[in-house]
Amino acid sequence: MNFKDNVVILTGASTGIGEALAHRLAAGGACVVLAARNAQKLEAVATDCRARGGRALVAPTDVTDEDECRALVERAVVEYGRVDTLINNAGLSMWMKFEDVENLHSLEYLMRVNFFGSMYCTYYALPYLKQSQGRIVAVASVAARTGVPTRTGYAASKHAMVGFFESLRIEVEDDGVSVTIAFPDFVASGMHTRSLGADGRPLGHNPLQVDKIMTSDACAQLILDGAAARKRQVLMSNRSRLGQWLKLIAPGRVDQIAKKAIEKGK
Ligand SMILES: NC(=O)c1ccc[n+]([C@@H]2O[C@H](COP(=O)([O-])OP(=O)(O)OC[C@H]3O[C@@H](n4cnc5c(N)ncnc54)[C@H](OP(=O)(O)O)[C@@H]3O)[C@@H](O)[C@H]2O)c1
Q1: Cα–Cα distance for residue pair 123/144, rounded to 1 Å
Q2: Residue 175 counted as domain residue
Q3: How many CB atoms lie within 10 A of CB 51?
Q4: What is the distance in angstroms between the CA of the first residue and the CA of the last residue of the chain?
Q5: Position 46 in a domain
Q6: What's the burial of 205, exposed, middle or buried (CB within 10 Å: 0-12/13-18/19+)?
Q7: For the chain, what is the domain count?
Q8: Residue span of the structural domain in which 34 resides
Q9: Which residues sit with their C-beta closer than 6 Å to ligand 1?
Q10: Which of 151, 68, 83 is nearest to 116 (CA)?
Q11: 220 is a domain residue
Q12: pLDDT per residue over 2-54, tens digit each?
């Protein structure tokens, strides 16, 4: 792996795919800067990272707060002197039909976490990433390329991420900074239980067939392989690979696949 001694700012590091990314990065000898809101969970992840041979800094951060995102980058620079990689992984999902949404604030909040949070972190890290000719990783979703029922606000926030990072990629190419966008399909993590329901509160249960979907660790491996190779995008399932072509010739078929995936929970 290509991350030995790399200074990696990782958002959403307290659990799920982010925790798995932290473990793998640490095992590869990276210096990880662990960001999320839950400081206690971050401390536990940091302990695991150090046990795996990496260096780890805990930086509690709410990515919806621009000042906290700036402070996150400043902490990384004060501690390690540079930033080589930024992984925008923090995210929140939803599981509700748009007509059932009780308060539109829920959808605004999804946009703040998924889109604005990534944008703030990227803005403050960019000068350092240009110095290091570093890597930016955006963890989007299959819902960033196509519509998914029960995911209107989530899909919108992830489509926004893709528009932003695909544009930024062109701007920073000549500076030697790469932008890799990952498009996970269903992944087993607590995200589905935490997804916002119609009342704006966490769903509280996981409607997916957890044993039939990708593990967080397998997802983390694919993300890091893609980032190491400075790939433009990382697709993770046959249906997402097929979907990008099918969308051009039979978009209605892609809609059906998305509908069926939600109904079956896999
Ligand atoms: N799981 C899937 O099926 C799936 C599929 C496609 C894409 N993805 C994407 O993959 C990424 C990781 O998802 P996951 O499955 O690992 O979800 P997860 O287990 O729920 O983890 C989400 C992470 O984001 C952090 N987070 C949430 N709100 C935050 C905020 N305001 N500020 C800072 N950190 C915040 C959480 O930590 P705190 O609560 O401690 O802040 C947690 O560390 C997300 O961007 C998600 O959209 C997941």
Answers
A1: 21
A2: yes
A3: 12
A4: 30
A5: yes
A6: exposed
A7: 1
A8: 7-237
A9: 11-18, 36-38, 41, 61-64, 89-93, 113, 117, 139, 141, 184, 186-187, 189-191, 194, 216
A10: 68
A11: yes
A12: 899 999 999 999 999 999 999 999 999 999 999 999 999 999 999 999 999 99
Q: Is 123 a catalytic residue?
A: no
In angstroms, what is the span from residue 249 Cα to ligand 1's centroid?
33
CA distance to 67, 161, 163, per residue, from 156 (Å):
24, 9, 11
Q: Classify residue 243: in a domain, yes or no.
A: no
Query: Do residues 110 and 154 lie in contact, with contact meaning Cβ atoms separated by under 8 Å?
Result: yes
User: What pLDDT, on the 0 to 100 scale, is given for residue 37?
Assistant: 98
Do 140 and 158 meet the contact criterion of CB atoms below 8 Å apart? yes
Q: Ligand 1 pocket: which of 14, 17, 65 to mutate (most atoms <8 Å of CB)? A: 17
203: CATH? 3.40.50.720
- Cα–Cα distance, 142 to 259 (Å, whole number): 13
1 pLDDT higher than 80 = no
Could you give phi then psi for residue 265, rounded to 5 degrees? 70, 35
- Structure tokens given for 47: 């302990």
